[in-house]
Amino acid sequence: VLLHTATANGFQMVTSGAQSKAINDWLIPSVEGRLTGLGGEDLPTVVIVAHYDSFGVAPWLSHGADSNGSGISVLLELARLFSRLYTYRRTHAGYNLLFFASGGGKFNYQGTKRWLEDNLDHTDSSLLQDNVAFVLCLDTLGRGNSLHLHVSKPPKEGTLQHAFLRELETVVGSQFPEVKFSMVHKKINLAEDMLAWEHERFAIRRLPAFTLSHLESHRDSLRNSIMDRRARIDTKALIRNTRIIAEALTRVIYNLTDKGAPADTQIFTDQMQIQQEQLESVMDWLSSQPRAAQLIDKDSTFLNTLEYYMGRYLKDVKQHHVKADKR
Q: What Å distances lie between residue 236 and 239, 272, 314, CA to CA?
């Protein structure tokens, strides 16, 4: 009703600042880092992706706590947990892990699109080039009692992505029965101006990918709202979702089910447990500032802090810059 009243009667937003100017030419920075698996160069790669930018009617008020501060928080905590497993030879997995904090997510995942082009079309050596097991995109994971795995194409039995789907069901069913888990199948609609989820960027390039979110539909209005603030994040749900993903991912890359590990085996306990204080402080930091893509340039404190944080746990951490498509 408020929106209709404002648009129907020609209301204007009035500020006391200087005259606004259109931003025509801006960079989209992203950050990547990796953990290299044990056992040669031709190992399969699991890619973990989350876009860091937010969106809303007023860019300066777009703090994007759930969308997608929660996704980045989970990505950073996964980087920390798996860096510990990859430190010791006896707990080192036979998979490469590639972490990508993408920019321009709210602008049709432009950072991801150009990163894929650079890695698949313009280079001879890239972890994305040869053997991608699957791509896991993290989006809106900070609330609710549901988890949905969004796919463009249901995974085939016998593939690693199908194994990950089964492990998610196993972990949720045996350890978190209060969570409603489902797979949501939606074909990519190339007639639409905007893609629904980030995994579709990878699926278009024939890479097996899916997005994990507590939202059942990509059309949920809170994904692009200035009301998406820190107070709306349920810390318990965020920790639980991080735990579910970490446990399922570990069961897949260490092949624990085939090795006879019971469904209720908990890997991330005691000294390896998820650190609530750290997860909360990262969430506080992310949601304390506007992260609209057009406000973040390559020299921003936010981006440098993100790169530094990823550099604590990952190897070969670097920024990736592309110019925004003017359309």
A: 5, 18, 26
